[in-house]
Amino acid sequence: MTGGPEVTPALAEAHGLTAEEYERAVKIVGRTPTYTELGIFSVMWSEHCSYKSSRIHLGRLPTEGPQVVQGPGENAGAVDIGDGLCAVFKMESHNHPSFIEPFQGAATGVGGILRDVFTMGARPIALLDSLRFGPLTRPKNRYLLSQVVAGIAHYGNCIGVPTVGGEVYFADIYNKNNLVNVFCVGVAETARLFKGEAKGVGNPVMYVGAKTGRDGIHGATMASEEFGEDEEKRPTVQVGDPFTEKLLMEACLELMAEDHIEGIQDMGAAGLTSSSCEMASRAGTGVHLDLDRIPCREEGMVPYEMMLSESQERMLLVAKPGHEDAVREIFAKWELEAVTVGKVTDDGRLKLTFRGETVADIPVRQLADEAPRYDRPIAAPQWVEALQGLDVEALPEPSDYGEVLEALLASPTIASKEWIFGQYDHMVRTNTVVLPGSDAAVLRIKGTDRYLALSVDCNSRYCLLNPYAGAAMAVAEAARNVVASGARPLGITDCLNFASPERPEVMWQFAMAIEGIADACKALGTPVVSGNVSFYNETMGLGVYPTPAIGMVGLIENGRRPVTLALKDDGDLVVVVGESQDDLGGSEYLFVWHAREQGVAPQLDLDRARKVNDAVLTLMDTGCVKSCHDLSEGGLAVALAECAIAGGIGAQVGLATGGLRRDALLFGESQARFVLTVAPANRDMLESVLSEAGVPFEVVGWVRGDRLQIGVDRTLTIDRPLSALSETYRTALERALEGGR
Amino acid sequence: MAIGVVVFPGSNCDHDVAHVLERVCGAEVRMLWHRSTDLAGVDALVLPGGFSYGDYLRAGAMAKVSPIMAEVARFARAGRPVVGICNGFQVLVEAGILPGALVRNRDLRFICREVTLRVEHTDSPYTKGYAPGQVVRFPIAHADGNYQADADTLKALEDSARIAFRYAAPDGSSDASPDDAHNPNGSAHAIAGIFGEHRNTLGLMPHPERCAEEVLGCADGRPFFEGLVAALRGVAA
C-alpha cells in the first residue's frame, strides 16, 4: 500500500521534473518510481535543494583561509574568533513564502536559519535581515513590509535572539516579488562543532521536536518556480511556532554539551527527505526509516506527505549507540518528542518502510550530491548598454542642494529604520554594544575582550547596471561597514536572489555576480563560508534586480573599542578618507531627484578598497578615531547628515569641486570612502598614518553647532538646522507607511 | 547567600539576569526549573523576562500554574525578596502576587528602546541605591506592558507609596497620564513598576539587567541589583 495516484511522466512534470529528469529517476530506481519516490525526487532535485543551475558557478567562490573553521556544505559556515571560539553563520532567503503569506513567511524564515546555526552546536547571538519591497506608495507594499516586520519580530523576540540590524531597499521591481533574507550568527566552541552526518552503521536515527503536519508540502518546489497570475499557494507556506523552537534550541544545546550524538541536521526545505538524504550522503552511508514511527500531527498521513512536509521546529539526529535514553530524557525535560525512527545503514540507500511495505528505496548520492547539474546558457542582455548609456552631463543641476539632501534623507531606502528595529528586541542576551542604525551591529563576546561586528549589504541597482561590479561592491560595502565599527573583516555568507535561471540573461547576471563576489572576497581577504541561492524571483516574466546580499562578520580585537558613526565633540576635525570621483550612475540621488535608475555603476578598485580599510583600522589602533561612517547611498552629504543626526551635533564642512559637478561631489557614490572625526590634537597622528598608508584623505571641516553647513568652492551650498534634518530622517519611513507621502 | 532565577519554558532573559548577578555583583545564582518545588535554599527570587509558554493564551497566564509558583507565592508571603522583570512581572500579576494587569501597549506594537524612569520611592532593597526622584535610563522590550488596575487599586498604590518607577521625561517631569509623550505604552499613572504590600516584592516592565554594565552604554540598572545583593548580605551577615 503506497497510496497516491499512478506515477506517469505527466505527473512527474506536474511535480516540476523535466522529461529528462524523470527518465533519469526511472533509470536510478530501475522501474517506475512509487508516488513517494516521485515526491522525493521532485524536492531533492528542485532548484532550491539541488542548486542544479548554480553549482557549477559556485565553485569559483574562494572558501579557504586560515580563519575558516567550516566552509560551505554544512548547515552553516564558521570562522575562528580566538579563545577556542568560532562564529557560526549563514544567510537564507524566504522570498516566495513571504510574498504569499508575509507574516508566517518571514517568521519561518527566521526559524529556519536559527536551526541551521544551532544544529552546528552554536548558540545563536544575532539576527539581521536584508529586505526588498516595492515602493510604499502602494498599499500592498505597506502591508507586506508591516507583516514581514511583524513576522520577524514575532519569531525573533519570542525565541530571545536579538535582531540587531539589516537593510531595506525599495524599488518598483519588487512589487510582485519581495525579498526576505535572514542572516543568523552564533558562537560555538570550535572543538565542539557538530555536523550533519549520519555516521556509524547501525546507529539509531532519531526524530526530535514538533510533530509532522500537512503544512509546507512542496515548499521547496514552490520556491523553485516563478509566480504566475494566481497566488493560490498559501497552503505551501509553513506556520512557525517560536516557543517550540525555543524549547528545541535549548534541548539541542543541552544535548550537544555532552557526547550523545554523531550528527544532527534540521528539517528545513524538503523536511525529512533532505535531512535524511544529506546526512547519509555526507557520511557515505544509508538511512532506513520506519515511517510508522514518525510523530504525526493528524491521522491518516501517508508517506508522501510525511516525507515532503515542511512542518517547522523539527530535527533529525543520529545518536551514539546506547545514548537514546539520554537523548529522550533531555527532550522530555523540554516537553518535546524524541523518537527513534530508523537506523544508519551501509547500503548507501534511503529506504522507507510503512505498514510493512517498502515505499521508497533510492541511492542517496544520486538524490543529493549527484543530483542533476546544468550549465545553463548565458547571454548578456542588450538593454544593459542602453541603461548604462545615460548622459549624466545632460541632467540639470539642482538649484537648492539643501532640498535635495532633505529628499534623500526622506527616501525610505536611506531614512532611519527606527520604525522597524523598534519592534525587534535588539538587546536580549545583553551583548548588543552598538545598536541598530550604525554601520555595523556590534556584539560583545562575553568572557573575552573581543566583539563581533555584523553587517548585511547589497545595492541591487548597481547589480542591475553591472552585476559584476555590483556584487563586488556589496562585498566591499559590507567590509567597509564592519571596518567603520573597528573590526577586521573575517568572512561572508551570501544569499543570491535572482530571477529564472532558464533565461540566459539571468544566468549571465548570476555568473557575473559570482565573479564579482569572488574577486572582492579574494582582494578583501573574506572567504565565503556559507550561502544560499534563490532563483525564480520573478512574476510573469519580470524578474527582480540581481540581489546578491552579503552578510559579513568582522572581529574587533586587541583591546580596540567599537566606534560608531555619531559625531562626538565640538571642534573635532571632520576627515574624508578615500577619493571622490564622478560616480553619479545608479545613485540614490539620480533615482530620488531625477527618477532614473540608470548610468554606469560606481567604479570599484579592490586594491584601493583593501588599502583604505587597512589604513582606517591602523588609525583606529591609535585610538584617535572618535567616529567613523562608511559612504554609500546618498554620498558624502547624506553621510555627514547621518553622523550629525546620530551625534546630535552639527558640522561645518568646506569642499572643493576639483572638476566634479557639485551634485557628484555631494551625492555621488564613489566607493572606498569613509568620513571620520578626530580631536584637533590628533591631526599629526591622522596625517602620518594615512600618508604612510598612501591613502588619499582631506580634512574638510569641524564638528560644530546645531546646523549642517556644507560649502562648495567657498559658497555655502547646504545650510540646514540639524533638528529639521533629524525630523525628516527619523519620521520619513513611518510617514511613508501611513501613506502620507 | 544565593539568588534563585526561575526558568520557565520560554524564559529568555534568565541568562542575562544571572550574568549581572554573578559577574557584576558577585552573587551566587541558582537556576530554578519551573517544575521544581524546592527553592534550593535561596535568599531571593528573580522571575526573568522572556516569553514563558510563548505568551500563548496571555502573557504569564500559563506560567502562573507552573509547579514552582506555589512556592514563589509562599516565599513572597513570608516577606522574602521576589522581583519580576518584564515577563516575570506579568507572571506575578497573573498569579495575584502583585495587583493589576498588563495589557497590550497603547500603539499595539512591540516596543524595544531605552526609556527614562523616575525612581519614586527608595525605601526598598531594589531602589535604595538611587536618590528619590532620580531619573534613570532603562530599556524596555515588550508588547504587553500597559499597566492597568481599577481606581481603588491605583489609589491604594499611590497612597501607600508603592509606585516604584514611573515613566518620565529626562528632566524627571511626568503628568502621569496614559498619553504622556514619555509614557511608552499607555500605562495608568505612567506606572513602570510597583511594590507589593510589604515592599519585598517588586514587578517592573523595564529591564535593569540590560543596563548594568558600562560596555552596554549605560549602567543605571546596576544599583538595582547591587542594592538587592547588599540587602541580602546584610541579612546573611
Concise synopsis of the structure shown:
Chain A contains 26 helices and 28 strands.
Please describe what this structure looks like.
- The complex is a heterodimer of chains A (741) and B (237).
- In chain A, 36% of the residues lie in helices and 24% in strands.
- Chain A has 741 residues and is an alpha+beta fold.
- In chain A, the strands form five sheets. Chain A has a seven-stranded mixed beta sheet with strand order 8-10-7-11-9-12-13. A seven-stranded mixed beta sheet of chain A has the order 23-25-22-26-24-27-28, with helices on both faces.
- The relative contact order of chain A is 0.13.
- In chain B, 22% of the residues lie in helices and 24% in strands.
- Chain B is globular.
Indicate the topology.
The complex is a heterodimer of chains A (741) and B (237).
Chain A: H1 9-14, H2 19-29, H3 35-44, H4 47-50, H5 55-58, E1 68-70, E2 77-82, E3 85-93, H6 95-100, H7 102-118, E4 123-133, H8 139-159, E5 163-170, E6 179-189, E7 204-209, H9 219-222, H10 242-256, E8 261-266, H11 271-283, E9 286-290, H12 303-308, E10 314-319, H13 324-333, E11 337-345, E12 349-354, E13 357-363, H14 364-367, H15 383-388, H16 401-410, H17 418-421, E14 432-434, E15 441-444, E16 451-457, H18 460-465, H19 467-484, E17 488-497, H20 504-524, E18 528-534, E19 538-539, E20 542-543, E21 547-556, E22 573-577, H21 588-594, H22 606-621, E23 625-630, H23 635-647, E24 651-655, H24 662-667, E25 674-678, H25 683-692, E26 697-703, E27 707-712, E28 715-721, H26 722-737
Parallel strand pairs in A: 4-5, 9-12, 17-18, 24-27
Antiparallel strand pairs in A: 1-2, 2-3, 3-6, 4-6, 7-10, 7-11, 8-10, 9-11, 12-13, 14-15, 15-16, 16-21, 17-21, 19-20, 22-25, 22-26, 23-25, 24-26, 27-28
Helix pairs in contact in A: 7-8, 7-10, 8-10, 10-13, 16-26, 19-20, 19-22, 20-22, 22-25, 23-26
Chain B: E1 2-7, H1 14-24, E2 28-33, E3 44-47, H2 68-77, E4 82-85, H3 87-94, E5 101-103, E6 111-119, E7 135-142, E8 146-148, H4 151-159, E9 163-167, E10 191-195, E11 201-204, H5 222-236
Parallel strand pairs in B: 1-2, 1-3, 3-4, 4-11
Antiparallel strand pairs in B: 5-8, 6-7, 6-9, 9-10, 10-11
